[in-house]
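Open question from group meeting: does this chain pack into something compact, or does most of it stay loose? Before anyone orders reagents, we agreed to write out a predicted structure and look at it together. Recording both the input and the output here so the notebook holds the full record.
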Amino acid sequence: MNVPDLTLTRWVKSSYSGGNEGECIEVAPGLPGIVPVRDSKDPHGPALIFTADAFAAFVTATAAGEFGTV
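Structure tokens returned:
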């Protein structure tokens, strides 16, 4: 997989993130076939890049409670 340059990417904080600037993730929507994810507390740190299908499966499994409560 080619790693895209994400320096000019628009990042969106998860709607499930609390307002306390605690455990938050951001995603970069609208990139064809991939979903970059990063820690909102470290915006210049690394991003994990998932295929769109893998990220959709993760979101579906999380919503179904397959990972329990964290």
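Observations to bring back to the group:
Strands lie at 12-13, 25-27, 34-39, 47-51.
The first strand starts at residue 12 and ends at 13.
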